[in-house]
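Data card: per-record layout.
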Amino acid sequence: MQKGDFILIDYVAKVKETGEVFDTTIGDVARKEHLYKEGEIYEPKLVVIGEGWVLKALDESFATMEVGKPATVEIPPDKAFGARDPEKVKRVPLRQLTAKGITPTLGMRLEHDGKMATVRAIGAGRVLLDFNPPLAGKTLVYEVTVQKKLETQEEKIAALIHRRIPAVEVEKFKFKVKAKAVSIEMPEEAFYIEGVQVAKRGIALDIQRFFPEITVVEFTETFKAEQKKETPQTQTQTQEPSEPTK
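The structure for this 246-residue chain is written out next.
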């Protein structure tokens, strides 16, 4: 495989030192490792090789992989999230956090002075905050399988759409490619998804990036009126008044 190839990968990512799984595309593994999040989509991840959608060391390793064959990639700290800097560990008064409505707990991720930190210790009215990335100083191990290499333009465009709007089945998006234009018919399930307008712009930019010959991306949203159920009409008979009896 080479730069620019579209591939779908499954992976399990671990910290080498502890064996702790911190990320995965596989739902069963996420449940087993207590990482499962409701609403999260667990499925093979789209990667365009060389685009920086994954860590660079992992991206570079795809060149030697084969479709369907599991591979293990070990990434040292300097090629992952860097070394852990002791200067980025600070103690702050507990009251500074509680005043913001934050009740810190061990391991909690929170924002302080505009930066994200991890709570490492609590005691004596102070909280130890670690502003290093959570995986700084760690050697990472990725167990990766390239599940599929996408070959056709249609497969690639469908994957780019699904990457931006994963909550809706990709088969529900109908699209046509004609000369320099792509027209995409949006399914009703996607109309009211939060951030859908940003997602549509992202889809358009992605398509035009990877297919420079396409200069127009159109989206169609069709709102169909609900069919009213016909209620059975009650037939009434009108009776003429009878002649008065003489």
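Known properties of this structure: The two ends are 107 Å apart (CA to CA). The domain at 1-83+136-150 is CATH 3.10.50.40 (Chitinase A; domain 3).

See the next section for split statistics.
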